[in-house]
Structure to design on (268 residues):
């Protein structure tokens, strides 16, 4: 017999609805590379979803323009200049961001540089710069941020589809991004016991300043397009949903994963 007046017994296997909703309202977020194509979209997406965002970048003018034009009207965005290739500058940025935010819940490690060159033409200083920014800087951004993240914190690294498929003339970049992929897994297992999740996103070809030269080269562009099952290049906004999801409590049991956002490229 069904007793409609019976008090329901809480099912410990069910999450409260608030924790299953993909949301970042109230979270305190650092976005590095926030003045670039993808970083800007993520900054705005996070702020529109109610997060407090410190947007950090080496490029002063686009950073100032973003903060000036996009902050307010319900969005909380602050800007900080820094150089990910300089570890002192990185430390100062993280400390200042944490102070401004009043703590830290999420790091989106998006800043990065590309080097398009035949491997034999790459100089030692070019190799060093790509590694210093894309791999060494990103690693220390994770370790420094992890000191402030409490249980429930999330780090989202930006790797690349080119960490899984080889593409001509970007050997150094691919090596750095492959390092980022494995670094993500290594940090995820090390920090899981602290309740800190570490995941990565692997963008395919996204229309930003980084790929403008490829998009302006019709034979190269068409060759690439044929390899994308979705039949189009990505837009910066295509990365926002995946980033917000990985930052949210809905992803609370997901760590050490590399989520490809590439229109199907690496599944080919
Ligand atoms: N666009 C793509 O197709 C694509 C594909 C795969 C991976 N990614 C990765 O996504 C991330 C964002 O790329 P994007 O396409 O938006 O590029 P972008 O060039 O538009 O943005 C990169 C941002 O990083 C900043 N930056 C560069 N060096 C820095 C440094 N030393 N310190 C601080 N900031 C620095 C730049 O000023 C810029 O604002 C990068 O890590 C990139 O490698 C992009």
């Amino acid at each position: 017999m069904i007793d409609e007046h019976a008090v329901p017994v809480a099912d410990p296997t069910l999450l409260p609805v608030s924790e299953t909703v993909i949301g970042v309202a109230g979270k305190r977020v650092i976005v590095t590379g926030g003045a670039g194509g993808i970083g800007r979209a993520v900054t705005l997406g996070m702020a529109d979803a109610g997060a407090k965002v410190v947007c950090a970048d080496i490029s002063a003018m686009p950073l100032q323009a973003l903060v000036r034009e996009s902050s307010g009207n319900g969005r909380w965005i602050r800007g900080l200049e820094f150089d990910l290739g300089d570890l002192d500058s990185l430390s100062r940025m993280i400390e200042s961001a944490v102070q401004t935010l009043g703590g830290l819940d999420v790091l989106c490690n998006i800043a990065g540089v590309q080097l398009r060159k035949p491997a034999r033409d790459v100089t030692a200083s070019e190799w060093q710069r790509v590694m210093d920014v894309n791999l060494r800087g990103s690693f220390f951004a994770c370790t420094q941020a992890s000191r402030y993240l409490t249980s429930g914190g999330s780090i989202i690294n930006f790797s690349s589809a080119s960490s899984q498929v080889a593409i001509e003339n970007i050997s150094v970049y691919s090596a750095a991004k492959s390092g980022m992929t494995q670094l993500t897994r290594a940090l995820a297992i090390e920090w899981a016991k602290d309740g800190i999740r570490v995941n990565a996103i692997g963008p395919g070809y996204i229309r930003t300043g980084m790929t403008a030269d490829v998009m302006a080269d019709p034979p190269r562009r068409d060759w690439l397009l044929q390899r994308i099952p979705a039949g189009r290049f990505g837009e910066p906004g295509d990365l926002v949903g995946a980033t917000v999801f990985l930052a949210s409590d809905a992803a609370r049991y997901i760590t050490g994963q590399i989520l490809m956002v590439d229109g199907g490229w690496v599944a080919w």
Q: What stands out?
A: The longest strand covers residues 197-203. The chain is about 40% helix and 15% strand.
